[in-house]
Amino acid sequence: MALAARRLGKAISDTARAHIAGLRTYPTLDTWMNPLTRGLARHFANQEWLKALDEIDFPYRMSDDEIAGVSCVRYETQTARRDDLVLLYVHGGGLVSGSPRVNASMILPTCHLSGVDAVGVDYTLLPEARFPTQIDQVDSVYRSLLNDGSQRRVVIFGDSIGGAIATAAMLRWRDEGVKIPAAAILVSPALDGAGASDTHYTLDGHDPLIRSNGGRNCRKLFSYYAPGEKLNNPMVSPIYGNFEGFPPMLAHVGLREVLLGDAARFTQAARRAGADATLRVYDGMFHLFHMHWSLAETREAHADIAEFIKSL
Q1: Alpha-carbon distance 59 to 164, whole Å?
Q2: Which residues form a coiled coil (predicted)?
Q3: Judging by DSSP bridges, how do beta strands 118-121 and 153-159 pair with one another?
């Protein structure tokens, strides 16, 4: 959809209007899959996300670490005051781009407002590694955090495709009898590799960052991630899982997102299974708007996440 064709409601802030007008659609999946163009696509996407760090107006520190043999990044802010919790961050980027550092503007505001530090998993991207490597790496870091002697409870936080990895990991932990996280936070989660949500049709072209083509792009990406696996395998597409025994969960999504349906279906399924699941939908917002700290809508969203964490 051309930039000029983006029509916005009057309730959206002027700052958000300017952001939406300046957003550029992510490169096509074929660009990511082609080894000749993959590097440029990664560079483009990473640079766009790194720009969002310039909007952060509070002190923070990021430091590299290795946990259970997996590269990680630790996030600290000056407001840290709770040592009973730690956030485990699983970043988005379609499994082909992003990193805990590149996507740091997603998690830092929540650390700042909640007073809780975080650890981001630098899982291996596609095509260097495929399913279930990314889940295995998050699994290893999580189990290490549980057994590091601090007795801290872990809150898992996943955005976009990171939401699928985080939720699949929780299914594994529940089924294997591993202590489940204290809570889960999912932002703009991509949970259905089959691309079955109705919003892949109704909102396609209204999200300034993602084009769905009726769910075909989603099916292509998840097939690239997990070749030979059925797209309704809950470890690939967690939306098809059973969420009995899951912890309190909070899902955030924008009203322009093609992934809105995934978040709605997931929270409905979780509640049917007896889980405490809450869905927040933000008018006019786009995929991963939480990364843009200068927006009033983003500050409100992170404040809501921080209140959820404080309630624990």
Answers
A1: 30
A2: none
A3: unpaired
Residue given tokens 């889980």 in the structure block: 275
Q: Which two tokens stand for residue 209?
A: 């960052």
Paired residues of 279 in beta bridges? 251
**Residue 159 forms beta bridges with which residues?**
187
**Which pLDDT belongs to residue 165?**
98
Element (DSSP H or E) covering residue 62:
strand 60-67
For the cut 90, the answer to whether the pLDDT of residue 2 exceeds it is no
Cα angle 241, 157, 67 (rounded to 5 degrees) comes to 105
State how many domains the chain has. 1
Longest Cα–Cα distance in the chain: 55
Amino acid at 7: R
Compute the distance between CA of residue 268 and CA of residue 278 in angstroms, rounded to an integer. Answer: 9
Contact 155, 86 (CB under 8 A): yes
User: What is the CB-side half-sphere exposure of residue 257 using CA atoms within 13 A?
Assistant: 25
For position 120, which CATH number holds?
3.40.50.1820
Residue 288 has a pLDDT of 97
Residue 204: which domain range? Answer: 3-310
Give the residue carrying structure tokens 């049917």. 272
Q: Is the pTM of this model over 0.70?
A: yes
